[in-house]
Each structure stands twice: as C-alpha cells, then as structure tokens.
TrEMBL record:
Designated name of the protein: ABC transporter substrate-binding protein
Keywords: Signal
Top-level taxon in the UniProt lineage: Bacteria
Entry keyword Signal: yes
Pfam family, one: DUF3502
Amino acid sequence: MKSFKTVFSKTIILSMTTALILTACGKTSTPSASTSAAPSAAATADTSKPVTLKFVTMGPGKQADSQEVYDEFNKRLATLLPNTKVEFVPLTQAEYADKWKLMAASSEEIDIAWTGFVLDYLGEVNKGSYVAIDELVNKYAPDIKKEIPSWVLDRARVNGKLYAIPNYQQAVDARPTLRVPKEFVDKGYIDPKAAQDTFYKTGPVSKESLAVIGDYLEKLKQNNQLRKGFSPNVLTTMQHHNLLISAAQPFKLVGDLKDPKSLKVVNWYDTPEEQNFIKTMTDWYAKGYIRKDMLSLQNQRQDEGKPDGNVGWFHTIVGSVEDASAAESKRYGFPIQFIPMEEKYVISGLTDSTNLAITRTSKNPERAMQLINLLDTAKGKDLYNLLVWGIEGKHYKKTGDNKIETIGYSGQGTADAKYGTFAYAMGNTGNAYETQANIPNFVKTWQDMNSGATVSPLLGFKPNLDPIKTELAQIAAVVKEYAGTTAQLVLESGAVADSDKKYAEFISKMKAAGSDKVVAELQKQVDEFLKTKK
C-alpha cells in the first residue's frame, strides 16, 4: 500500500506497517483443490439478461462530475460486457467502516465492495460478508492468475480459500530512509555513503547505525545547528517486518524468510535491540538532540521537512536515491539528502490492505467476477483508468503514452476535485496512468521492487486469536501506556525520566498480561501453517 508522498507514502502505509488489526479467528489449513487449479480460457457467461451491479467504492466520495464519469463508464462497459451496468456507491475513507456495517446488517443487495485497511478483513470473511471466489476466478477470470502474481492472491486467502482480489500495487514493506538537509552533507557533518554502508551491514537500529546518527547530531550540536533536533518517529515502526497481528500488537517473526525453520515469534519490545534503542534515545534527549517538549507535542513529527525544522527524520523510499531526493526537495522547497537504511526489499504483510470482494448478497456473482476481471487485467485498462482519473481533456490531460497531468489536484483525487479517485482502491494499479506526482517510471519501479523482494512464506497465514484475545487486549493497554502510538512515542521518544526503570516495568507488565503465552500460541500456529506449505 498518496506528490511523491501523497501517492507513494499512502501505498506504503496501506502495505505496512499502517496495518490491519486482525481481531477475529481464522484457522489455517491446506489450500483447497481449486486454489491450485491452472488458469484456462475464460468461460462465456450468459449476458443476455440486463443486469445492474451495485459497486461500493472507497475514495474521496461523491464529486461534482462523478455521475458524468459513471455514465461514460457504463457506455464503454457495454462494448466489453454487454447488458451490464454499474451503480456506484462512492464512500469516503472516514465513513466507510460505519456505512459498511449498516449495509451488512441490513443485508443490502451489493455485488462488489471494496474491503481493506479500514475494515477487519478476516472478521468480515468469518461473518460471511464475502463469498469464496476460487471457482469464479477459474471460470470467468483466468487472466487474473496470469497477470497478478500468485503471492498477491495468497494474501486474500482464509483457510486456503480466496475471498477477494487484492488491488495489485507496490507491496514491499516500508524501507526506512534517513533524511537530512543536504547542506549538512555538503559541510561534511555526515557521509551518506559511509552511513549507508553501516546501515546496510548492521541494520537500521543497530548500535553501530545509531552511533553513526549520534556522531552526526553531535557535530551539529558543536556547530550550533541542531535546529528542532532529531525526530525518532517512524524509524521504529518502519523496521518492524513480519508483523503477525498489527502495528498495535508487538509480535513479529525474526529469522531468515528463506529458511522457514529459523523463524521465531518474539515480542519486539522484549528484545536487546529495542532496549538499546530506548537507552540511546534517552541519552540523545539528555544531550539536547531531541526537543525538550517532545512528550507534550500532539504531533511529534511537526518539524519534519521544514527548512528550520528537524535535522534528521525518517520515511520510505522508492526508486533511486537521486530521484527520491529530488522529488522530496521539490516538495519541501529546500535540498534534502536521502540515505537508505536497508538494502533488500521484503514482502511480509500477511493480508493485503486493499481488495475487491463479491458480497454474499450478490445475485449476479458471475457478472461481478467478470467486471473485477476487467478492472484487474490489461483488457480493461482503459475502463479502469476512466474510473480512476475521469474523462480525458476534462479531468486530466495526456502528456505521454502512459503519463497524464491531473487537473485540479496532484497525485490523488480530493473531495473538492471535479473528479479523480484512489487508484489503489479500484483495481490493478499496474494498469494505472502515471501522474505528475509520480517519480519517473513509477509503475515499473514498484513492479521491479515487488519481483525482486523476498516474499514471506507466511503470506495467507491468518492467526486464530480466540485463544489469546484476553491477553492481547491487556497487552494493547500496556503498550499504549508505555510505548504510546506511532504519532506520539513515549519511551521511544527518549523524554521519559528513569527510562530503565520504566522499561523494566513495561516488560514486566506485558508478561503479567500474558505476552509469553501469546508468543507460544503464535509460534504453534506458525509452525502448523508452515507444515501445509511443504
């Protein structure tokens, strides 16, 4: 899974680390026979009967020209899927979860619905909100299996069955990158190449990597140029690959993804690396590298990307360092230097964060599957781009074969734009036009990143949380008290007095809440799931 930042960082947030909270059960089992059925030629469904499909979408909501675009969509759809019209129900991200609950409770007749990061996907599957679609895909949409990698589809499986088609997009985990004002690089306060070598060799939060950043901050302090100091936010969460539940629950896998036998479940807060991180941040706070009022800030990241703001902060990177640095520099209005902190890309998110599902109330699942096929394959590329960007000449202008300039907004449609919705919510973004907000060759870049990444063998694993739901609720409360949130760090901010004592209390309270039991239960389920992969 939002300018360069508004498009790409949204997809990162969706793929991560922004992460789904899986609160319902979902036992794993060997995939059904239909899971491995080879794709064949699509069957021709009977389209002699006129059908109107209701499609609930997530985006900026109803816009001034929405109906005009929907009318044009239905006009063009008639040539690809005769006797089929679509009634769109556009909902905003903010209202989606509540509106969906009402629709589901009233058994409203819906054919296709977006499902993703604002919903509990596993919980919806277990409630029967969506139908299993393996046979529908094999019969009416085999091209999906040809054009979308199998590991992408696996992320939407529950108990081996496919309940949605993930909207294919950049899927690698957040790759942490240190940002610094380029003027400090030019002055020799930090050597990007030497820093990168250390980060790659020892990891983003190793003692050695933190020492490199600490040396940079000390030089700034000696030269009276600390400005608003260092922002530790994001780094901690961006290096948490292989989460087993969500960003709110501190349980992850460690080990070599290419060697499943090495994979062990840990509570990431209860590790030497995390203890050292907190000690280091506490030391940096005492030295003045971090703002003294850090704990009182509602937005601890408020000084990032400002000429007089933070001297070091973190975010993701896509593409080359040069292109990303140039894009960010343009966005913020002053030269910024990116320093990547991880060399390899990893795909470890167990559930995809944006999908299209066929609901249990659909009376036309075959036709719905055919429409999803169009939105996810090359055959329907023009139709998909019409739905995402609107009408050429009115909502965007073409600037190249696959490049456009959106009108009235940049990157992603807004509520006050005439038209323009979220590409990642409508289908296969590999077929999306690139906009003025993207880095050069954006689609090929993320596709190459995906294909070159190490893919977790646990994709499709959905932990059954029933045996540990009481412990997880108690642990979440402890985490909120001692760790805070990604936006408002507590212990990791460095600003807590007696942090050693508080850290010891933190770990003790998590153990009292049942963290060891959670680790044992998750390890058992992981081991059982991996047996099905042999």
